[in-house]
Amino acid sequence: MKLVVYLDSRESSRGGSKKPQDGVKTVQCSMNCVAVIRTYALEELKCATRNFRIRIGVGATSYVYLAELGDGRFGAVKRVMEERGGSKKMFLDEVSVLLRISHPNLVALLGFCLEAGEQLLLLEYIPNKSLFDRMHTHRGQSAGTLSWSNRLSIALDIAQALDYLHSQADPPIIHRDIKSANVLLIDNDRAKLADFGLCKLGYESYYSQTPCIIKGSFGYVDVNYLKTGHVTPKSDVYSFGVLLLELITGLKSMQGSVTLPEWTEDSRKSKEDEALIKMLDPKLNGDVNMDQLRMLVDIANSALVEYYEVRPEMGYIVHRLSSCMELQIQPDSPV
After folding, report:
1. Measured in whole angstroms, how far is the alpha carbon of residue 232 from the centre of its chain?
2. Is 22 a catalytic residue?
3. Per-residue pLDDT, 256
4. Sign of CA dihedral 241, 245, 251, 257
5. pLDDT tens-digit series, residues 229-260
6. Active site residue: 133, 157, 177, 222, which one?
7. pTM of the full structure
């Protein structure tokens, strides 16, 4: 199927008789759907955001604002800021990536604007904020604790998103910024991966002999990438391993100056159930299936191996997480 992209929202209506096909660009899409993505005039997005009035998120190089699209629909406008380190190249790279992808567990692009110095992306609006907010802020925790089954479901959704980027997108895409702040929650069970500003196209990365400038977030960045500057899909696998530890422990990716993989190393590599239980987020009150916990820790350990070639591919991780969820759903007795 094809992804249909309107290059100029005004161009297609000019003259009244022009066929829509004359004002569009088509890009191959691997999903069985036809999506329409149009450019917006700056005034349209200013009006939709009430002149960037309600800020709902902050990125490394951007702010995100709520947009009212009419008919009860909402969107999220990502405003890339040069003063925060954004650039036109980064913006166009992100648009290029977003035009290539479509998956239920990826936040979708609805449109964009590059006008009068503004660099704006109109994205699908996900109302329940990020996994980071849900787990690590007072407001998020006041909504109650994410259950063990919630955490497994969220992990599987993000694993499926990464598997799609690595093995189904053409060319493959390395996200480079997997973290809980970029996991947006539809509800307690379902999640989507967001923020493609640091993505790299896989073929370019695989065959380049030139190290990349290190990009990513403290605590999540692949240790091999830090040492060599070479990024691969296995760099995302490492970051996903950190995300799994975050879901298991309820802890942030950095514990002071120590990364979460370092902080939990002795416990997660132990063969004793008691050591694994000590890792658990205390807010779970021990309501966890031990077979699932063992498997999840094992998946995290395999993803966090320092030698990147030994790490599993995301497709294998999806398979193991799916198998994990098929285990006994009822939790064991509190531990």
Report:
1. 16
2. no
3. 95
4. negative
5. 889 999 999 999 999 999 999 999 999 999 99
6. 177
7. 0.86
